[in-house]
Amino acid sequence: MKIIVQKFGGTSVAGLERMKQVKAKVEKKLKKGYKVVVVLSAMAGETDRLIKLAMEFSKKPDPSEMDVLLTTGEQVSVALFSMLLKDAGIKARSLLGFQIPIHTDKAYGKARILDIDTEKLIELLKTNDVLVVAGFQGCDFQQNLTTLGRGGSDTSAVALAAALNAEICEIYTDVDGVYTTDPNVCSNARKLPKIAYDEMLEMASMGAKVLQIRSVEFAKKYNVPIHVRSTFSDEPGTLVVKEDEVMESVLVSGIAYDKDQARITLTEVYDEPGVAAAIFEPLAAHNIVVDMIVQNPSHEGRTDITFTVSRKEMDDAIKIIDRIKDEIGAKEVLYDKNVAKVSVIGVGMRNHSGVAAIAFRTLKSENINILMISTSEIKISCLIEEKYTELAVRTLHEAFGLDKEPQMESL
Amino acid sequence: MKIIVQKFGGTSVAGLERMKQVKAKVEKKLKKGYKVVVVLSAMAGETDRLIKLAMEFSKKPDPSEMDVLLTTGEQVSVALFSMLLKDAGIKARSLLGFQIPIHTDKAYGKARILDIDTEKLIELLKTNDVLVVAGFQGCDFQQNLTTLGRGGSDTSAVALAAALNAEICEIYTDVDGVYTTDPNVCSNARKLPKIAYDEMLEMASMGAKVLQIRSVEFAKKYNVPIHVRSTFSDEPGTLVVKEDEVMESVLVSGIAYDKDQARITLTEVYDEPGVAAAIFEPLAAHNIVVDMIVQNPSHEGRTDITFTVSRKEMDDAIKIIDRIKDEIGAKEVLYDKNVAKVSVIGVGMRNHSGVAAIAFRTLKSENINILMISTSEIKISCLIEEKYTELAVRTLHEAFGLDKEPQMESL
Q1: Is residue B217 predicted with pLDDT exceeding 80?
Q2: Which of A11, A158, A342, B299 is in Cβ range 3.0-4.6 Å of A215 for a Cys bridge?
Q3: Contact status of B83 with chain A (Cβ, < 8 Å)
Q4: Do B410 and B401 form a contact (C-beta atoms < 8 A)?
Q5: A152: domain CATH number?
């Protein structure tokens, strides 16, 4: 049995005309002899409508009841789309998360998939050509409904593809693939034919708009090839695959940026064991995610510690820091919301030095000051003043030749 | 464990303010030490909105997918109401039909309840004070979602009350009880404190607005006392109970009328075995419900057969009759949409003759011609010209003294 999974997002199912386009995509695969598992999101705007409704009823809606409420969005999509398929004589039926079942933990609103029962799915695929599955939802082992968090339908699709050993998981969206950088910032951004899972993960800040992070982690873990492509064209999009399948092992695949950054500096804290823990443990306890961290060299037993958090969490972070300020001997707490992070990403840099040097030199050539640096095996990130973000992205994009078809490792 | 079931219809849950009133009704019972099972309908207008949406997608939407779609209506209600209760510190949770489960047959759109698993409910009532159950829905034994048909939430409530051996099933609605007749027609209609299940069933044509017929059949079968009352007042409504609990065994309880009647007459058909079957079997095969049937005395081997159907089905019925007309020797097919049925209802007439005579005399006194008559043990129905409907109802209401507090069997 040749199985393919196709996932369509909210804009792709917003109304009859859009759903007809989705139907055409499904029929194309049927003609090629595939059994198709279609995963649908709620119609665009529906989830937000339901959240707004809940907020009328409760300032802090109960998370489990919230999931009961939100799962109706995808339920409506799959029912309507199944009607459309059946009317066209296609053997199809809808399936809700609990009907498969897609078992998750009990973390309402951000549940993780634990287990998918494939037996029923395989049985249903014998008598049906298309199964229309509600994305974003599952249930715990007591049949309480759960949801997988924003963008969770991507994860549903990848998980189903993994469980069913599908040939590929196609993620249809309103963009036509993954680009070397944001085309809104850099007009000669180029669509990448292939990208490695790790690169896709690092491209999170742009990629979040294309794929839910967790779905990529899932795809990497189970080695599910993802094809990100447009609902509104027949052009191939971007394949997200294992590193060794990215044939042109290019040095740098893309430039990402993230303006949701705020910088906090604690000056002249005691340079002694336990100080970092004293700062970052209370932040973690309040679910504040710290991104970059830099500690300056010690001077007379004192040091400066700088870190970044998401902008909307900066005020909370400062409140927490103020409480522990004296304990760690901090002289001042400085902060800056006008910063942005620019990242150079590529699995190729695992085996090559010199990428960082090019990046720094490029930024310097435009007189862009680097406020912080953090690196991983496949990424170099620089914190800069926010106003230089677009300039930095364009300059780095050009410096690494991303506007041109990739050459073999050119360093 | 003292259990009470409370059912609230669409207008009672239409929005936050209404739901707060529902919450007050629930809290009142909690204070009295009850565990409360609340059954909710979809918010007013929601089911119609979903049906309209489906009709955009399909002229004849697949019934099983329709049920997947429609069950979202109640799902939204129970999630929102449970949020409200939990916010107020009440131990509560929502339950969908499949989670209980309420098992039904596979008749999508008009499924019948086969079985309710009380074990989980009882278990949940130990840790919760309120269970908020989605009405109108269930699932078959393969976990396919089903719905119970319009007004099905009444049946859900009665079935749950029966399964849980609840003290009473309260049906909250936007009217404050069952009246001796339609108060819009007869200004001195009186609210009945009690009514027997059979009377309630016969009052269908008015009662349909108050209680779903099937819920009354269910209540009768399992002897569940129903209290029909208003969400918007604290006045007692009408108790629907076993016949022998209707203390004042009155002769006549109410006058009902039904304008959804059309009369069809086949003149001079062969008066021989099989003719009635030849007429009514094809009608039944097309799901056309025939209400009254009258066959005139035979004359020279020929007879006239007259019957009534719902107005919207008259054209279809005539098409079917035209096909078999010659076979049964019918000379003419006559029809009339301007007819209505007026019924005198009361369990008291089981033991008393004379009620029919009073009814006929009363209609004659107003010069209202009786076109057809049909009787049951507890009902006398007369088909009359539609224009006399209100006059007939008012005159009969007065003739049987229904505007006054009931006297002991006064005939």
Answers
A1: yes
A2: A158
A3: yes
A4: yes
A5: 3.40.1160.10
Report how far apart, in Å, the C-alpha atoms of B82 and of each of B39, B152, B295 are.
Answer: 11, 21, 56
Does the distance separating the beta carbons of A96 and B68 come in below 8 Å? yes
Closest by Cα among B15, B10, B13, B37 to B26 = B37
Shared domain for B140 and B46, answered yes or no, is yes
Report the distance separating Cα B34 and Cα B11, nearest Å.
25
Catalogue the long-range contacts made by A332-335 (C-beta closer than 8 Å, 24 or more residues apart).
Answer: A332/A265, A332/A266, A332/A267, A332/A268, A333/A264, A333/A265, A333/A266, A333/A267, A334/A264, A334/A265, A334/A266, A334/A267, A335/A262, A335/A263, A335/A264, A335/A265
Say if A302 is an interface residue toward chain B (CB within 8 Å). no
In what order do the strands lie in the sheet containing B145-147? B113-116, B102-104, B137-139, B145-147
User: If DSSP codes are grouped into helix, strand and coil, which group holds residue A350?
Assistant: helix
Question: CB of A68 within 8 Å of any CB in chain B?
Answer: yes
Residue A377: what residue type? E
Residue A14 CA to its chain's centroid (Å): 22
Residue B35 and residue B144 in one domain? yes
- Based on the domain organization, do B104 and B11 belong to the same domain? yes
Residue in B39, B363, B289 with CA at minimum distance from that of residue B173? B39
Locus of tokens 């019918």 = B330
- Interchain CB contact of A117 with B (< 8 Å): no
A223 in a domain, yes or no?
A: no
Give the pLDDT band of residue B23 (cuts 50, 70, 90). very high
For residue A409, is it within any domain? no
Asked if pLDDT for residue A332 goes beyond 90, the answer is yes
Mean pLDDT taken over chain A: 92
- Kindly state the greatest CA–CA separation across chain B: 79
Contacts of B65 in chain A (CB under 8 A): 79-80, 82-83, 86, 93-94
Residues above pLDDT 90, as percent of chain A: 79
- Write the CATH number for A275: 3.30.2130.10
Residue of A nearest to B82 (CA): A65
Q: Are B288 and B317 in contact (CB under 8 A)?
A: yes
> Among B127, B152, B174, where does a domain finish?
B174
Residues B30 and B169 in one domain: yes
Rounded CA separation B56/A79 (Å): 13
Question: Quick one: which of A143, A154, A149 has its CA closest to A40?
Answer: A154
Same domain membership, residue A278 and residue A135: no
> Per-residue pLDDT tens for B161-198?
999 999 999 999 888 899 999 999 999 999 999 999 99
Number of structural domains chain A divides into: 2
The residue from A174, A198, A229 where one domain ends is A174
CB A137 within 8 A of CB A156: yes
Judged against a pLDDT cut of 80, whether residue A205 lies above it is answered with: no
Tell me the pLDDT tens digit for each residue of A87-144: 999 999 999 999 999 999 999 999 999 999 999 999 999 999 999 999 999 999 999 9
Q: Are B187 and B408 in contact (CB under 8 A)?
A: no
ipTM over 0.90: no
A141 interface with B at CB cutoff 8 Å: no
Pair type for strands B145-147 and B137-139:
antiparallel
Decide if B255 contacts B342 (C-beta within 8 A): yes
pLDDT at A347: 87
Q: Note whether A80 and A38 are within 8 A (CB).
A: no
Residue of chain B whose alpha carbon sits nearest to that of A142: B99
Predicted local distance difference test score (pLDDT) of residue B210: 81
Give residue B339's domain range.
Answer: 255-399
- Domain assignment of residue B268, yes or no: yes
Q: In this structure, is residue A410 part of a structural domain?
A: no
Q: For residues A290 and A263, is the Cβ–Cβ distance under 8 A?
A: no
Q: Are residues A281 and A143 in the same domain?
A: no
Q: What is d(CA B171, CA B173) in angstroms, rounded to the nearest whole number?
A: 6
Q: Which residues make Cβ contacts (< 8 Å) with residue A175, sequence separation at least 6?
A: A209, A210, A228, A230
